[in-house]
Amino acid sequence: MIRKSNVPRVTSDTEAGPTRALWRTVLMLALSDAAKGKDAGWVGSADFRLVCALGDLDAEAVRRAFEADTARMKRLRAA
What is the pLDDT along the chain (79 residues), one digit of tens a residue? Predict the structure, then answer.
C-alpha cells in the first residue's frame, strides 16, 4: 500500500502544475496501452497507485472508471 509519506512531493507550487500534468500524461498513456491489452495487469498495481498519487488522483476512482469504460467498450464492440 502506498502511503502519502512514501510519495515524493514537489516542493514548489510553481512546479506542482507541470509535474502533475506530466504524471497524468504518463497515466493516460499507460491506461491507453492497458486498454489495448498491453500489460493490463498494471492497473491497480503499486506502480499504478504511485503514478496516480504523483498525478494527484484517487487511484481507486481511476481504476473503477477505467474498468467501467473498458466494459462499456467491450459491450459496444459485441453489439
Answer: 445 555 555 545 556 789 999 999 999 999 999 999 998 899 999 999 999 999 999 999 999 999 999 999 888 888 7
pTM of the complete model beyond 0.90: no
CA distance linking residue 4 with residue 70, whole number of Å = 29
Sign of CA dihedral 69, 75, 77, 79: negative
* Coil/strand/helix, residue 40: helix
Q: Could you write out the DSSP letters of every residue in 48-60?
A: HHHHHHHTT--HH
Which residue's C-alpha cell is 498513456? 29
Q: What gap in Å lies between CA 2 and CA 6, rounded to an integer?
A: 7
Alpha carbons 79 and 40: distance in angstroms, whole number:
23
